[in-house]
Amino acid sequence: MVPPAPDGPGAGGPPAGPPVGTAGDGGGSAMIAVLGRFVGELRAAGIPVSMTEHLDAAEVLRHIPLEDRPALKSALGAALVKSSAHWRAYETAFEVYFALRGDGYAIEGEADGEPGSGEDAEGRAAGAGDGGRMGRGRGSAGGGGQGMTAEELAAMLMNALTSGDEAMMAAVARQAVARYAGMEPGRPVGGTYYLYRTLRNLDLDAVLEQLVDGRRSGDRGGQDGAEGGGGDTPQAALTPLEERLARDEFRARIDLLRRQIEDEIRRRLVADRGSEALAKSVRKPLPEDIDVMHATRDELVALRRALQPLSRKLAVRLARKRRHGRRGPLDFRSTVRHSLSTGGVPVEPRFRYPRPAKPEIVVIADISGSVASFARFTLHLVHAISAQFSKVRSFVFIDGIDEVTRFFEHAEDPAEAVHRINTEADVVWVDGHSDYGHALTVFLERWGDELTPRTSVLLLGDARNNYHASQAWVVGELARRSRHVYWLNPEPRAYWNSGDSIVGEYGAHCEDVVECRTLRQLERFVGELA
Amino acid sequence: MTGPGSLPVTGFPEPGPPRFESIAAVRTGLAGIDYLADEGIAGVVYLADRLAKPVLVEGPAGTGKTELAKSVARLTGSRLIRLQCYEGLDESKALYEWNYKKQLLRIQAESGRGWEELEEDIFSEDFLLPRPLLEAIRSPEPVVLLIDEVDRVELETEALLLEVLSEYQVSIPELGTVRATGIPLVFLTSNNTRELSEALKRRCLYLHLDYPDVERERAIVLARVPGIGADLADQIARIVRSIRSLELKKSPSVSETLDWARTLVVLGVESVDADVARDTLHILLKYRSDIERAAKELAGGAAGT
């Protein structure tokens, strides 16, 4: 976000038109204005776009033909987005701001004059950007689905997926959305609901099985040359390997279809409500900003993917910090000894070799349903950088408590160990509802003696105790025996101490209670810990 | 086609004529020398030339980052100058160094002359040892500069690169500023082991090179492995995709795919079945646990997931 020194007029607010108005051939000032709003949206989504990058993007517009959308997308991306983790957020914003009026609609022309198409052509002529066109026809298209019957659509779907023909799949996506999404103009939604409705009606999981079955029974009609799965043995039944490959192939196609459906819904929403309004509701958080507790399945996948590079970077950074801060306290004897060569004048002070104490970490994590994924991420992260600590021990609990350090010791991959925790750890005592009081008491009884003044204890959980006894004195006792006790709470601060959350009671004995809702916050905390 | 020279940037070297006609030209050109670029890659290379900006290429190991720079050098008939980064890289290895032995000799040889005169003399270009960055800038012929694995240098050392990357010039206190004669195409690669500084990223176009999709990987195998059949290449590409979809410690890279393909050709395999795959997986995967995992999955051990 830092405005660049050399050129550019100081602070760059989003709409401050870049001074590249000289470009007569780049689509003109309308395009520049759209770009300005687009950059504003990217910044709002959390992607840092500097003024220089904005200028570069304007320059890009002069060199890339605007008709070539895929090229434009990757080119603008190259100028604006400097991290692959941000790509998804960028893509979503791009689709909203630039994908509005793709030629795609034309293909469908013969499928019985979809009321939208005329309007789209009109929109394209009017230039990109400003919304406000209410989708007159959209509502009726949603309700009617006048193109095909459900059976025809299903048949077309199978056909498109078997052949892997992208244009055909796009047509299916359009039909499916028109038929099943039931979109209502003017509603301020992000489209997740429409997507859900469409997908539920298509039932793609069943379609996948059907496709694999079809392949298994040797029905290979109408496939493109790229197939040829089992080259030499076309007639024989599928080997497991071939079946797996076929399944992956179909799965990839279904994923593509799903993306196309999503695009289609978004396109209609944009036409209905205009890009600005929509951008806000479809904005995708960056992986490091996803709220771990309420992440969707897709977001969890993104989180897991982000976690590995994150922990690696953190480890590298910490190791560097340790290596470079290489100045211990003054070594008086050595200084005097070396001063002899300069006639007793201590020209060059000598320092002792520093031995930064590596803390011992004990992690005690609640892994009951609501906070399970947060606990998993934290355990994963802490163990991934365990070389930065002299010792890491982990305990997990729901209402019973169990030590899980052993899983991490033998696992090469922390993710694997985390998986084993879910299946093997013995954490249920009575009913499997969190009971912090009991779990902490047991911890103190069984392992309390092993805490030393060098230990840092991390308590993880939302402290929602289901109205059991809090036994907060235990935390006080832990604090007395160890160096630090921190409480990491994955809930937003505003919810603390509401309902059955008693984090305040425990927090009174902790050195600090930290809100830890996102990877970014977690990384910061762990980084400071080491 | 107005060049970027119309921008009001003072002291910026005159850009040469554009190297590429269009994005498509980049793509076919690269394909002609067996580097199969997708639309995105070709687009960024094209832009790098038109905007006179360096390209920061990031991505997993073995996806052809370095190869891209080499191929572009071949395509444009430029000399490739490579700066391999490592921890502890400094000015005297990256930019320039004074040839102090030669300077000493000169001082001894000319002991009769005044110091003023001598100083002027020994801090001249004759005594300068150009290192890759300076060399790339001074080179009279067209150059592709490859700064490899830039994430290995410390954050502070990155600053050495900034002047070269944005202004295409090197300032030498004793000598003045050396400007580029022509603008080199610059590629920086990074394996993403650490976050690069904002200042560096801001000056570059960004290209993320991920594993290729099936079609591209098949094409790469066909182009790079002599004597391979289309069926086998197709099968290889699809198996590799399946393996990459597993959660492994290290997914197979493109170069490992190629090694595997070559092995299969040498072994005379015409069609990969589960047995062949299991016996040769160690070429594709480098961790014991990964190999076991993949072998199990490919044999249908966890089908239906």
In short:
The complex is a heterodimer of chains A (530) and B (305). Chain A has helices at residues 28-44, 51-63, 69-80, 87-98, 104-107, 116-125, 136-144, 150-163, 166-181, 192-202, 204-216, 240-273, 275-282, 297-324, 332-339, 372-384, 405-410, 414-424, 436-447, 472-481, 503-507, 519-529, and strands spanning 360-366, 391-397, 401-403, 455-460, 484-489, 512-515.
Structural class of chain B: alpha/beta
Query: According to CATH, what is the class of the largest domain in chain A?
Result: Alpha Beta
Considering DSSP H and I runs of 4 or more, what fraction of the residues of chain A is helical?
Answer: 40-55%
**Average pLDDT of chain B:** 84
Taking the sheet with the most strands of chain A, its summary is: 6 strands, mixed
Low-confidence stretches of chain A: 1-26, 102-145, 219-235
Give the terminus-to-terminus CA distance of chain A: 29 Å
Biggest sheet details of chain B: 5 strands, parallel
Q: Fill in the CATH topology of the largest domain in chain A.
A: Rossmann fold
Number of strands of chain B: 9
Alpha plus pi helix count of chain A: 22
User: What number of structural domains do the residues of chain B give?
Assistant: 3
The strand line-up of the biggest sheet of chain B is 2-5-8-1-9
Radius of gyration of chain B: 24 Å
Strand composition percent of chain B: 5-15%
**What is the subunit organization of this protein?**
heterodimer
As laid out across the biggest beta sheet of chain A, the strand order is 3-2-1-4-5-6
Terminal CA distance of chain B reads 53 Å
Provide the low-confidence segments of chain B as ranges: 1-10
Mean pLDDT of chain A: 74
- The CATH topology of the largest domain in chain B is given as Rossmann fold
